[in-house]
Amino acid sequence: MGRRRILAACATALAVTGGGLGLMPAQAAPGSGSAAARAGDLDGDGFGDLAVGSPEGTIAGFSKAGYVSVVYGTAQGVRTTRHKGITQRTAGIPGTPETGDRFGSAVAVGDVDGDGYADLVIGSGGEAIGSVKGAGSVTVVFGAKGGVSGDAIAFHAPTPTARQAFGNRLAVGDFDHDGRDDIAVAAGTKVQVVKGAAKLRDTAKPAMKSYTPPGGGAGTGQIAAADVNGDGYTDLATVAYFDDPADEGTLGVLAGSAQGLTGRSLGKTGLPFAGYSIVAGDVTGDGKGDIVVDTGFSDGPDDFLLRMFPGTASGLGAGVPYGGPAQPGRAATLADLDGDGHADLVTSDTSAVDPDGFNNAGAVTVVPGTGAGLDAAHARTITLATPGVTGASEGNDLFGAAVAAGDYDADGTADLTVGAPGKYLGTGAVSVIPGSADGPTGTGSILFTPESLDHPAAKARFGTALGATTRP
């Protein structure tokens, strides 16, 4: 029997008052939804924006109610001088803060109504639905000129289930190629999909369609969106498991189509167990999304310690083992960090020691993508002790607990974003490391905390979740 994989992002409570987390209403304008989705541009100014989730923050006296902070991109990249805070106390946001809601447990970005502004999709994995505790919910906050608006909707699983944490595993992608992103939520044995629509913000209870992942059994794991077969429709990669997440599972791909996501499989392969991290992106630059799977431990030679499954015209290709030493931790994201047209892999190891040997400082490793796949020979590890990177690496920082990438300065190269929720005795911090022709080098990097945004900082665990995008 396999060993259970535990992926933990530490967090504690934060006292937050409403004054530092308000919103200014703004009006939406027409535009290109697909362009906004690619850029992760919430306010339509051409620069990608960043959302930071703190799901264990205390709001209005309610512990672990949670909040999300938005920091806007500029010609100089992310700058903390312009920001917004979103809680369930914010005007226009559905619901009310309650103990254990965990608003911000997951954050995704995409233009779900096709109005030219990217929107925030926020998971609240601990939300109680009526008397059903921990059922979970999803909130969509719509982008607009000037910043995220006060327009929002919320939805939950068709049948709320106790401790299911609906909203903890999100993906957005244009499954029907209509210029509006669709929202996929994995929970229980199913994936629920809400189709993007021009009037989604006016829909109090959006319709959901349910899908069973290829090889589905006792439950679903991670999901990731990418056009695996290059037909113009985004597909959905899934991990399903059988009787127990520690036992074997299945990596599979559900096909997109003109009618949206379908139950048709674009390929599947067995996994030695199901506790895998999966990420999706075009590593080879051939216009087809590749899937990388990874696990932070090994029970044997067949455990797929970092393996790429290339996209092909017929779907999921055969797995290609990583050509270098196994990377510790997990596959965290795929993004083009050097502007060469190939998505680069970022792996994260929050257990990495600091320069003095203290545990859990954290590190990320960037593996360049090439036409032939992942270039293990030029993999490079980055920590808060790397020359040029702002900050200092210290034990229990948990640098790498969350990883994302966004083109915040609109120079065509993705910028690496890394959460360190344990930094400063649990205040937390986020590091933004600009991309360049040489990849992320640390030059021009910044490190910011809740204090930088005028949000209360004590034990915030800021940076537990990140939302940004640079999709092609």
From the N-terminal CA to the C-terminal CA, the straight-line distance is 40 Å
DSSP summary: helix tally: 2
Average pLDDT number: 88
- Counting copies of identical and different chains, the oligomeric state is single chain
User: What is the overall silhouette?
Assistant: globular
Structural class: mainly beta
Describe this structure in words.
The protein has helices at 33-39, 423-426, and strands at residues 15-16, 50-54, 58-59, 67-74, 77-86, 103-110, 119-124, 137-141, 152-155, 170-173, 182-187, 190-194, 209-211, 219-226, 235-241, 249-254, 265-271, 277-281, 290-294, 307-309, 311-312, 315-316, 320-321, 330-335, 344-349, 363-367, 369-370, 373-374, 380-382, 402-406, 415-420, 429-433, 446-448, 465-467. A hairpin with an 8-residue loop joins strand 18 (277-281) and strand 19. The radius of gyration is 20 Å and the shape is globular. The longest helix has 7 residues, at 33-39. With 472 residues, it is mainly beta. It contains two helices and 34 strands. The chain is 2% helix and 34% strand. The strands form ten sheets. A four-stranded antiparallel β-sheet has the order 5-4-2-34, with no helix packed on it. It has a four-stranded antiparallel β-sheet with strand order 6-7-8-9. A four-stranded antiparallel β-sheet has the order 10-11-12-13, with no helix packed on it.
